[in-house]
Amino acid sequence: KEKNGVSVSAYEAACVSDAGSTAASLLFYSQNGLFTAITHEGSLDDMDAGMDICDKLADKLLQSKIASAPIRKTPAAPLGGSSVNDNAASPPPQGSLRSKDPMSDASLITAAELEKFLAPDLTLKDGITKIDAASGVAYSWQSGSLSGRAEQQKLGDPAGFDGQVSKYLARIKDGCTGTFAAQPGLKKEQTG
After folding, report:
1. Alpha-carbon dihedral sign for residues 106, 103, 27, 130
2. Which of 9, 4, 161 is nearest to 77 (CA)?
3. Which region among 17-21, 125-129, 158-162 has the lowest average model confidence (pLDDT)?
């Protein structure tokens, strides 16, 4: 069981059907009792652009100093990973903690914090819009030919990160009317 750990995992997914095909890059992030999913969806031709954004955002999340702990990198699949720079100063957009208990007072991300995090890696058309979420918060945006979405909620058990990732992927698969495939990209953890 991790305590105050950071987990980052990326996937690429595709839904191919006669009605139309889509591709998505998915970035999952967990820290301080919060689980975040950031996705970029577009046509199959947009897969590379989506994964480039995903890789940049994953690097950004891992470049911040979090408890000065070592980072464990575990390749999840033959897809490319990314480098880690322990000297970067800007923290990831996981809200703030006002207590030592990561679940007691974790703040969910605001639209302004998300927009600051996404810049300069994305050019947002018309900014970020808050959308309905079953739990936690959710936002959407448009960047070029890609549609973006971020969802964040409290994670009851930090060890449940992989379970949350599986639930998110299952939800996307359920929305696919054709053939669905998902492949992991990178998986990195930093424990504190």
Report:
1. negative
2. 9
3. 158-162
- Mean predicted confidence (pLDDT) in 34-43: 92
User: Does the pTM exceed 0.85?
Assistant: no
Determine the Cα–Cα distance for residues 26 and 29; give it in Å rounded to an integer: 10
Q: What is the pLDDT of residues 102-124, one digit of tens each?
A: 334 468 888 888 888 888 778 88
Alpha carbons 159 and 137: distance in angstroms, whole number: 21
Query: Contact at 8 Å (CB) between 137 and 181?
Result: no
Tokens of residue 122, six digits: 């994305």
d(CA 123, CA 103): 33
